[in-house]
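Duplicate of #3305? Posting structure anyway:
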């Protein structure tokens, strides 16, 4: 990492043409990716990424530059080139860095550097064998272990000096089932802000059997009907629906420029009274957690919606300036190549008092979405669509036959109002979220819940 005297010189150079704030983000990241296809190791990659991002603000106007050449001459020149985009009087600063005491909420027992590939290969072989043995329809398997460790330094012209180390581990399991000319994939991808001890603590065989079960079940399924019906969405990664349909619309990246349907609605009833939604970056060892965000602020628990009332947004430094509201520890970026923006960490709907059994029993005809896939949203309108990876019909208050090809279509604003039952079985599921500041690990969570009516895109009438 850089010495304070050099960082001060970079910040001085960045403010030579009138910027009112400057920041450096130094990153040293090591990635390890080991993968096996069909029981054969096909991928054994490792790499190191080392560089610095320099950001300058003048009001709400932002300039960003980055480089992997950390020589003093290049860093000063890079800062000056970035500053050249701003016009104004030079502002001298005298820095006395105040080192932030960062509390580590995420103990690491086995960092990536301590994990031997031979041990990982044994884990992957167990997973492959369990995937294949789970069902005779499984013809292809893919398994992998992804680890990375990221050391960061964040310093700015206000005197902040913060350093942190982040370690992540994820197991990825994929099974392809084939039945005639039909092919379906089942996937599991547990992950945590933790070392290899997290993966060692998983029931590898159970995770593999679940991925194979999904593939083998859905390959025999008929196509889903289309129409408007009640939908029961399972807990865990089912929370990706809220993440995409509503969460992105609560980020100051959209709210601060009035590009969100939730802009200007603080204190208003925007959801069913059953809905309380939270983003919490402090959960120990959770996939989306951080000790500090990528602007050097300690993460926190942010209540976004409480009993249906909009209570807050997710706000980074630039959003704070635009909205005249305090930042919420939500400034995140994929790497030094990206300027930070407001992003989610672990976003979830809080528990209610209903049970999954009651939701199914009280649904005469509808869809049970056991597992959701990817989706997209327009934050300006809250229009979204999502694939359902594993779906079943509900008939006469009971789960019936599996169906495939179903999508959920609607508006986030409408769906929030139509949540009429919320369970007490909160769980979280890890995923990767892409936005203007890159791809980031996030957790999506919720209890099982029911939406009284949603549009289902399918291939056949009912």
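Output from current build:
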């Amino acid at each position: 990492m850089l010495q304070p005297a050099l960082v001060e010189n970079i910040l001085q150079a960045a403010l030579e043409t009138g910027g009112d704030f400057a920041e450096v983000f130094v990153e040293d990241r090591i990635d390890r990716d080991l993968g096996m296809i069909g029981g054969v190791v096909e991928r054994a990659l490792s790499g190191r990424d080392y560089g610095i991002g320099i950001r300058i603000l003048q009001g709400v106007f932002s300039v960003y530059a980055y480089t992997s050449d950390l020589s003093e001459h290049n860093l000063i020149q890079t800062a000056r080139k970035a500053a050249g985009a701003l016009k104004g009087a030079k502002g001298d600063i005298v820095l006395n860095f105040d080192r932030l005491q960062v509390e580590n909420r995420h103990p690491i027992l086995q960092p990536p550097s301590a994990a031997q590939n031979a041990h990982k290969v044994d884990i992957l072989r167990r997973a492959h064998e369990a995937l294949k043995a789970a069902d005779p329809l499984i013809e292809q398997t893919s398994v992998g272990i992804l680890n990375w460790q990221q050391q960061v330094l964040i310093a700015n012209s206000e005197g902040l000096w913060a350093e942190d180390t982040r370690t992540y581990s994820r197991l990825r399991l994929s099974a392809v089932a084939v039945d005639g000319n039909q092919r379906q994939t089942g996937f599991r991808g547990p992950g945590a802000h933790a070392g290899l001890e997290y993966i060692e603590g998983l029931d590898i065989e159970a995770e593999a059997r679940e991925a194979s079960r999904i593939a083998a079940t859905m390959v025999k399924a008929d196509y889903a009907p289309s129409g408007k019906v009640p939908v029961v969405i399972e807990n865990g990664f089912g929370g990706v629906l809220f993440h995409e349909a509503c969460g992105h619309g609560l980020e100051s990246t959209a709210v601060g420029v009035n590009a969100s349907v939730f802009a200007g609605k603080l204190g208003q009833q925007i959801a069913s009274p059953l809905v309380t939604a939270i983003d919490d970056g402090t959960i120990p060892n959770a996939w989306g957690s951080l000790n500090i965000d990528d602007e050097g602020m300690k993460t926190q628990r942010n209540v976004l919606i409480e009993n249906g009332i909009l209570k807050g947004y997710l706000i980074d430094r630039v959003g704070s300036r635009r909205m005249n509201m305090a930042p919420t520890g939500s400034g995140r970026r994929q790497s030094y190549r990206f300027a930070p923006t407001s992003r989610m960490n672990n976003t979830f709907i809080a528990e209610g008092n209903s049970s999954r059994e009651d939701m199914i029993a009280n649904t005469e005809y509808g869809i049970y979405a056991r597992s959701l896939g990817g989706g997209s949203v327009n934050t300006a309108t809250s229009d979204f669509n999502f694939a359902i990876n594993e779906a079943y019909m509900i008939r006469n208050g009971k789960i019936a036959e599996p169906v495939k090809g179903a999508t959920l279509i609607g508006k986030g604003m409408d769906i929030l109002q139509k949540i009429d039952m919320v369970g007490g079985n909160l769980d979280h599921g890890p995923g990767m979220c892409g936005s203007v500041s890159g791809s980031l690990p996030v957790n999506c969570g919720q209890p099982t819940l029911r939406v009284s009516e949603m549009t289902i895109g399918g291939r056949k009438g009912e």
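Confirmed duplicate; merging threads. Residues 227-457 form one domain. The chain has a mean pLDDT of 95.
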